[in-house]
Amino acid sequence: MVNLSVISTIIVQAAMISALYALIAIGFTLIFGVGGVLNLAHGATITMGAFSAYYAGQFGLGVPGAVLASVTIPALFAGVLYLGMVKRLEDEPIMVMITTLVVSVVIEQAIVVFEGTTSRALPPLIQGQFSIAGSTFQNLLGAMFVVSWLLIGLLFLFVNYTKTGKGILAVSMSHKGASLVGIKSSRINLITWIIAGAFAGIAGLFLGSWLTADFAMGQAQLVLSFSIVVVGGIGSIRGSVIGAYLIGFLEIATTNLVSSSLQGLAPLVVLVVVLLVKPEGLFGREFTE
Fold first, then answer.
1. Distances in whole angstroms, Cα of residue 90 to Cα of each of 32, 203, 241, 268
2. What is the DSSP letter of 124?
3. Are 276 and 23 spatial neighbours (Cβ–Cβ below 8 Å)?
4. Residues 54, 60, 65: CA angle, nearest 5 degrees
5. How many Cβ atoms are within 10 Å of 116's Cβ, its own excluded?
6. Which helix (H) or strand (E) holds 26?
7. Beta bridge partners of 135
């Protein structure tokens, strides 16, 4: 019989890990919700965020430098990727998928060339532990939870209460309609890619600091992002957050109550079930409310 201590541990751990999952998936769904294309370089952007922080540590820039590098470099990369390649192929979603997949492979192979296949430890963002309901957790997990929800809240406020944010909403609803009222879709798409890149970079920072960074770390995160986005509804930020928590809680419960070898299986199981029962996802295709 499972005691209350185990249940409380699972709930707290799942809440914190799911916040990271939401952060991982939001950039992926943001690009699709606004631009209508799938960015298969999303996982590589997460990897780039982790290694940007790693190199910042190697150059002695400390935690502030690692945080800054993990945000700015992936954001700039995403912006350049959009301007240099994706913008020319916006009307051909299949070509965007192929192009971003190729870019992802190039990034991974570049990391293998320069760093090899050995995992790298990032500079510790925050040390120490805290206790909740008799269970002890890393302060890093608590920071992940707080920062993730802070960023999600800021994104919501930005989208709903700023001029640029309302432009993002307009483009997500109709590119033609937005252009008729003077909104430049290309500018909005660029901003969206930069924001998505920054979110992916921060996710990579936390993921690499919590575990380690390696050339292939983004592959699992791309699958996770896709699973979360499909479950929540492609293009729905609210759906991505709820999907992240659904998958996160199921994964943590499975690994704690059944077997740790089943980690990573939960997203795929939920994905298959949702595709069979509700193919449009929990919230269909929307951007925000």
1. 11, 26, 26, 29
2. P
3. no
4. 65
5. 11
6. helix 4-35
7. 132
DSSP string, 164-202: HHHHHHHHHH-HHHHHHTT--HHHHHHHHHHHHHHHHHH
CA distances to 10, 95, 164, 167 from 180, in Å: 50, 27, 16, 12
What gap in Å lies between CA 258 and CA 191, rounded to an integer? 43
Taking the C-alpha atoms of residue 212 and residue 51, their distance in angstroms, rounded to an integer, is 10
Per-residue pLDDT, 274: 82
Q: Rounded to whole angstroms, how far apart are CA atoms 20 and 94?
A: 29
Say which residue, 261 or 91, is predicted with more confidence: 91
Q: What is the pLDDT of residues 236-256, one digit of tens each?
A: 888 889 989 998 898 888 887
- The Cα–Cα gap between 144 and 16 comes to 7
For the chain, give every domain's residue range: 4-117+138-277
Locus of tokens 């293998």: 112
Tokens of 137: 């957790």
Query: Residue 196 has what pLDDT?
Result: 96
* One-letter identity of residue 257: L
CB-side neighbour CA atoms (13 Å) of 81:
29
- What is residue 285's predicted lDDT score, i.e. its pLDDT? 52
Tell me the chain's radius of gyration from C-alpha atoms.
19
Asked whether the predicted pLDDT for residue 137 surpasses 90, the reply is: no
Q: Give 287's pLDDT tier (boundaries 50, 70, 90).
A: very low
| CATH code given to domain 4-117+138-277 | 1.10.3470
